[in-house]
Design a protein that fits this description.
single chain; 43 residues; mainly alpha; globular
């Protein structure tokens, strides 16, 4: 696993899709981006 993927997973910022897989090349929706930012800022 690349370092940045592990860092996002360890900090529970990126949790994976419905199947639990992380798809870094998948399209990102507005709601997913909002969830990333929400978790990244610890809100």
């Amino acid at each position: 696993m690349e370092v940045w993927k592990g860092a996002l997973a360890d900090r529970t910022i990126a949790l994976g899709g419905e199947n639990g897989n992380f798809g870094p090349k998948d399209n990102l929706t507005r709601s997913q981006f909002t969830a990333f930012m929400y978790r990244a800022h610890g809100l």
